[in-house]
């Protein structure tokens, strides 16, 4: 029997990965938020991988409690992820997930999901069993670009969507000025947080390719106000002025 895969956080996204691992022949050991991670690591001391599938707001707490024996097995998939979040986990595998899974619906692929790290083949094989494409990255620079791109997509659509509503296709076709203003401020924030300068138009064109992958995707999720608040909190800590985002926040109150 193949070694087990531990999944911390058994929600919609974790469930998709679990199906892939099971079809690949790996037993899956789910860990819920109520379970003790140290005890789980005693029960499963040497898993093939440890997929952390909790939401981004819960990730820091999970990483703080992560057992040492699991730290070289970690796979991360959260939105709003940047290299500083996992700098203390040099063996981490990171996948930028470009498929969505809503309750009561099957998963829907937008574009291939880029992956970097030692467990990428495992992820590619597992998701391949579900016909979910994975794009293997060759280095940390590529990973950084892909993480910033996903953040740009998530934050631009959610934050601009607070004002415009509608779909990502409509956002670009009917509210491009708003979308570009928000996107440029998000890129400014990402550059500050990563200490890296990006080609803005390259990022925006890559975001548009994702728009085209699912033009009917709704802009604004339930977490949109929280994402705006979190972006402004990051900006405040970095002494960064984001007037467009601040204006949107003021219009919400």
TrEMBL record:
This is Ketopantoate reductase. The lineage of its organism: Bacteria, Pseudomonadati, Pseudomonadota, Gammaproteobacteria, Chromatiales. It comes from Thiolapillus brandeum.
């Amino acid at each position: 029997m193949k070694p087990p895969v531990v999944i911390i956080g058994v929600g919609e996204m974790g469930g998709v990965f679990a199906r892939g691992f099971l079809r690949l022949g790996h037993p899956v050991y789910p860990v819920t938020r109520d379970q003790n991670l140290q005890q789980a690591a005693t029960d499963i001391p040497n898993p093939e991988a440890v997929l952390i599938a909790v939401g981004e707001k819960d990730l820091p707490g999970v990483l703080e409690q992560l057992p040492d024996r699991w730290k070289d097995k970690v796979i991360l998939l959260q939105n709003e992820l940047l290299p500083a979040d996992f700098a203390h986990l040099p063996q981490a595998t990171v996948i930028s997930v470009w498929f969505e899974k809503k309750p009561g619906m099957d998963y829907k692929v937008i574009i291939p999901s880029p992956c970097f790290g030692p467990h990428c083949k495992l992820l590619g094989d597992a998701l391949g069993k579900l016909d979910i494409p994975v794009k293997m990255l060759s280095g940390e620079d590529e990973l950084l670009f892909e993480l910033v791109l996903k953040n740009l997509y998530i934050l631009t659509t959610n934050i601009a969507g607070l004002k415009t509503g509608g779909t990502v296709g409509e956002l670009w076709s009917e509210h491009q000025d708003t979308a570009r203003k928000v996107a440029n401020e998000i890129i400014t924030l990402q550059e500050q947080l990563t200490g890296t300068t990006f080609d803005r138009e390259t990022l925006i064109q890559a975001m548009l390719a994702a728009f085209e992958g699912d033009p009917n995707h709704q802009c604004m999720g339930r977490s949109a106000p929280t994402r705006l608040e979190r972006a402004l909190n990051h900006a405040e800590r970095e002494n960064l002025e984001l007037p467009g985002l601040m204006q949107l926040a003021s219009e919400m109150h």
